[in-house]
């Protein structure tokens, strides 16, 4: 028959063993969570999925740049397949899943990303997109254009000159009925109210030129270049924009009573022709508003 003191000692020993076991299990769990970054993956999975749903629900157009100051988004892989957002990392078995709503009328199936530095989530022109963004710190921010009042308000004629690489842009401006100019030419004449010269060169740079000493041409050159840059920067993050420069090119000086601009677009940017067309229309509307 056991004495009362012996029973108490057994109970205390059992409790101590249980406490050691629980503490060891908790320590192991905590260490495992830290090493496998479960909390980070859970957070980013929920955060991006909810943000994606919010962007879809917002009326109008929206662009959101997503990064995390607390940890490196780029150390994970991301998959948006079948309305199930997966966050994973190499050599770690634990992946995190989070379901989300996707309006399939807005987008095609969303892509997979491996170690993106950041995301751009956008809804523009009724199209939802998720793209990788190289860095949230843009080395080439959008231009601040001159604040001159627009004085060349007549929209009577436009001439659009293009080389073989930019002929599609010429055709768009000349044949688009929403570009409200009465007469449209493929070569400038002296009475032309607006001359736009397109050309392409290698690279991802947007350049603009205007006639020497013409403030109105400088303004529209900046507006058009800036509009193109703003349209494509989410899709081509390393695009470069340069402030318009004066030019003595005869093509830009032929219409002394009008305005003229030359837009030089990097060949690698021309693939975004729809965005460039939208940008040209927006830039013209901004000048003539």
What's the short story on this structure?
By secondary structure, the protein is α/β, with parallel strands linked by helices. It is built from six helices and 14 strands. The protein has two domains: about 40-130, no CATH class; about 155-289, Aminopeptidase.
Helix and strand arrangement:
Blueprint: H1 4-36, H2 38-57, E1 62-66, E2 77-79, E3 84-89, E4 92-99, E5 112-114, E6 119-124, E7 127-132, E8 157-161, H3 167-175, E9 183-185, E10 194-201, E11 205-211, H4 215-232, E12 240-241, E13 245-247, H5 250-253, E14 259-266, H6 273-288
Parallel strand pairs: 8-9, 8-10, 10-14, 11-12, 11-13
Antiparallel strand pairs: 1-6, 2-3, 2-5, 3-4, 6-7, 11-14
Helix pairs in contact: 3-6, 4-6
Keywords:
289 residues; alpha/beta; Aminopeptidase; 2 domains; four-stranded antiparallel beta sheet; 6 helices; 14 strands; 35% helix
Describe this structure in words.
The chain is of the alpha/beta class and 289 residues long. The protein has 2 domains: 38-132, no CATH class; 157-288, Zn-dependent exopeptidases (Aminopeptidase, 3-Layer(aba) Sandwich), CATH 3.40.630.40. Helices cover 35% and strands 25% of the residues. The chain has 6 helices and 14 strands. Strand 2 and strand 3 form a beta hairpin. It is elongated, with a radius of gyration of 29 Å. The mean pLDDT is 84.
